Amino acid sequence: MPEQFNVGIIGLGVMGQRMLARLDGHARLRATQVWDDDPQAVARTLTAYPQLTAAANADALISAPGLHSLYIATPPAPHMTLSNRAFDAGLAVFCEKPLTVDFDAARLTIERIAREGQRAAVNFSLASSPGLAALQAAWREQPEGLLGQAQALRIELAFAAWPRPWQAAAGAWLSQRAEGGFTREVLSHFVFVLQRVMGPAAVRSSRPVYPPDGRGAESGLSAEMTAGGIPVSVAAGVGGDADDFNRMTLRGSLGEIELRDWFGVCRRRHGEVWDKLGDAAELRTRGQVDQLTQWVALIEGRPHGLPDFAEALAVQQTIEALLAGA
Ligand SMILES: NC(=O)c1ccc[n+]([C@@H]2O[C@H](COP(=O)([O-])OP(=O)(O)OC[C@H]3O[C@@H](n4cnc5c(N)ncnc54)[C@H](O)[C@@H]3O)[C@@H](O)[C@H]2O)c1
């Protein structure tokens, strides 16, 4: 195995830039090739990272000699096509969520991955978070431990505006119903956590609120599901003062565990704060470092904790059921 793995990046918007910054100086992963179908995005990237090579197109990037892995940070529509081309070239694929909104293409891709032993994972950032590990431990310890017996889970999201300010430069797709919206963009991370810890979720009822133009993404969503034998409620919407409020609370007969502000964790026993695992920003950094470690394991064909395409499709099926309303 080489000491360093060469990574190609397709999609140089908000997430592509974030990943380039994370990879910068990493001991095992080195971004080498980039491509975006917006020439300005390519030009901006080369100004910031002159050591990178811009490919002539997606196929040229994927077939570049010496490449080991492809990171896909485009909007969802091309995810399956690009993944399959990368498998053809023998690359390990790390793809952004949402996996896709084309379930048939996803199923065919998942069958191929299983048949050919392809290496593929999806970037749900909470997969490498201390909060997920704490939630899994609390769930396993039932009916002892922090929770006692789990009783209910609640997910709350609120955004002063959608898209959020840091996404101002992202494409129009983010605010449109076909591929965007906060249910796919944000709720999916928490549904991933929910399903990894508690198993498949069943949507009992869902009330998305859409703007009258028929094109805009949802402005609100309230829903009830069940997972792991307990009720799960969702209250999400555009409103309030916070740019990005998120909180996921698992309540039990003795205590509760709360994930908030993405990476923050608070555990309470009998209503009293038992502990906080640490500062949310520091936990985020730990999670991001761990994510790259897991990516290396994926490339090397070793066990890792990143979600595979089947797990990501299961998340997306729940998300699309919520968006369809029930
Ligand atoms: N894991 C996370 O925490 C997280 C956070 C934000 C966004 N995302 C996901 O990352 C992906 C990208 O989101 P973003 O916010 O960076 O969007 P963005 O609009 O900022 O960037 C997307 C880029 O992809 C390019 N692009 C579109 N189609 C392409 C194609 N066929 N070939 C090459 N380039 C193409 C666009 O020109 C643009 O530069 C989405 O799937 C989004 O859901 C994940």
Describe the structure.
It is a single chain. With 326 residues, the protein is of the alpha/beta class. The protein has 2 domains: 119 residues, NAD(P)-binding Rossmann-like Domain (Rossmann fold), CATH 3.40.50; 170 residues, Dihydrodipicolinate Reductase, domain 2 (2-Layer Sandwich). The chain contains 9 helices and 14 strands. It has an 8-stranded mixed β-sheet. The chain is globular, with a radius of gyration of 20 Å. It binds nicotinamide-adenine-dinucleotide. Nicotinamide-adenine-dinucleotide (NAD) binds next to helix 1.
Strand content: 25-35%
Q: What class do helices, strands and sheet pairing give? A: alpha/beta
What is the helix/strand order?
Answer: EHEHEHEHEHEHEHEEEEEEEHH
What average pLDDT do the residues reach? 95
Number of strands: 14
Number of domains: 2
Using the CA coordinates, give the radius of gyration: 20 Å
Helix content: 25-40%
Order of adjacent strands in the largest pleated sheet: 8-9-10-7-11-12-13-14
- Bound ligands, each once: nicotinamide-adenine-dinucleotide
Task: Label the overall shape.
Answer: globular
**What do we call the CATH homologous superfamily of the largest domain?**
Dihydrodipicolinate Reductase, domain 2
